[in-house]
Amino acid sequence: MNTLNKIEPLENLSLVDxxxxxxxxxxxxxxxxxxxxxxxxxxxxxxxxxxRTVVREALLRLRTLGIVDSKKHRGMILTQPDIINNFExxxxxxxxxxxxxxxxxxxxxxxEMGIADxxxxxxxxxxxxxxxxxxxxxxxxxxxxDRFSLDRExxxxxxxxQMSNNATVQRFQSLLLPVFEYVYxxxxxxxxxxxxxxxxxxxxxxxxxxxxxxxxPETYRSAMRRHLEPHFxxxxxxxxx
Length: 241
Fold this sequence. Notes:
Blueprint (H helix, E strand, L loop, with lengths): L14 H15 L11 H8 L3 H13 L3 E4 L3 E4 L4 H8 L7 H17 L1 H7 L2 H17 L8 H14 L3 H22 L16 H10 L2 H11 L1 H9 L4
Helix pairs in contact: 1-3, 2-3, 5-9, 6-11, 7-8, 7-10, 8-9, 10-11
């Protein structure tokens, strides 16, 4: 049997797509950094052999993403994009597909498990005092401590992410909380029975806080895994086949 050559895909890009790709390639090949000036529309247009309208549309896309910006007296410059801001524009759970929601749901679980070492490294007494107030208020106002609540998650886990001392993580987790609740509640509609924890006990926010006080990153991760056990089961049992 003769060996067949690899079948190449058909190129299905518009002129604007191609111009956008070429402009980004130009930035990389010339090692441009945020703040550096970039060529004018006309220069790109003549170099690419396309109209200025095509280049303008390509630059508009990059400007929307925060990659380029226009500055008075300087023209267009390369900027440092705000990655989280771009996520904020599209992370509406009702507009995302099931696979995307599932992946984002799993991403927050991954982040929760990976944050332990940073918490133990950066925690302060002030942080722990504030965490104590959050947990105490939760206990005084909550009668269903074994149920997922977005408000309680934002207060407690939001503080944990703040304690990580990582600004990007703090902003990203706030985006994932609605997705986290949305996927979990959608699954809960299918299963009305109370969840049975493998250890026979739900690990509360207070238990997590106490572990953070006297435990280690390893013991904390174990406690957090038990705290999030229903969500891990949901993700692992109902994930992509």
